[in-house]
Prior knowledge:
This protein is mainly alpha-helical. It has helices at residues 44-57, 59-62, 97-106, 124-135, 140-154, and strands at residues 22-26, 29-33. A two-stranded antiparallel ribbon has the order 1-2. Helix 1 packs across helix 4 and helix 3 crosses helix 4.
Amino acid sequence: AVGGGRCEGSGTRARAVVGGGAWYGVGGGAVMGWGGGPGRGYTDQQAERGETAYVAYCVSCHGVNLEGAPDWQVPASDGAFPPPPLNGSGHTWHHDTDLLLQIIEQGGMPFGGGMPAFRDSLSMDERIAVLAFIQSHWPDGVYRPWASRSEGAAR
């Protein structure tokens, strides 16, 4: 779970939110994001679908506000890195779309983390939606440089 220990649970702890932006409601709780809007490579509908999967599969490790574990850069006793923040304050935005989708599909173990693989739990459309939800939390000052690098890599 965020703050230490193994990450378990269905995400039913997702209840509180801080910050500003567009709200996306989900079953027992709500998590906040900035939304798609002009210049973003996803729609608000994708981000909303992604929130559902995030709450079900990711929130127990990465947190309600995508904050990750407090010491996410320090390996645990087993050598695996704790869950990083996904809100734009960590390193996630340094990776291109293909790598981010690969990490969701294969899990974090090939990359030094302990995240399980979701290839059997999430369809490709759901993985893309989770990524849209994550990116909806990135401020423009993080999203724009990421999009520029990703666009340049696709050429």
